[in-house]
Amino acid sequence: MLMRRTQIYLDEETKALAQWQAKIEGTSMSHILRASVKAYVKPKNKNKVSDFIQRIEALNKKYPTPPGTPTDIAMEHDHYLYGTPKKYSKK
């Protein structure tokens, strides 16, 4: 793995803790800091489409659509908000 030198500023307490941890583990302070950064910035689980769909379905079960709710709100929002004529009528 290619390593690049990076300089950081640590307060005295953090530096002492990192040195102490490195001494306990028998490794370098650099190794401790790299492991700490990796643990902190590890890639988060990206929401998969299936997870998103399951959450939407759970919300639909918890909060069902009231009867009589229009199904064309997205397309006809001007009509429902401002009373303009419908643009996309069913034929």
The total of helices stands at 4
The total strand number stands at 0
Structural class: mainly alpha
Q: Major beta sheet, specifics?
A: none
Secondary-structure element series: HHHH
Mean pLDDT: 89
Backbone CA Rg: 28 Å
| Gross geometry | elongated
Q: How many structurally independent domains?
A: 1
Sum this structure up briefly.
With 91 residues, this protein is an all-alpha fold. Helices cover 52% and strands 0% of the residues. It has one domain (8-86).
Secondary structure layout:
Elements: H1 12-25, H2 29-41, H3 49-62, H4 77-82
Helix pairs in contact: 1-2
Description:
This protein has 91 residues and is an all-alpha fold. The protein has one domain (8-86). 52% of the residues lie in helices and 0% in strands. It has helices spanning 12-25, 29-41, 49-62, 77-82. α1 packs across α2. The model has no long low-confidence stretch (mean pLDDT 89).
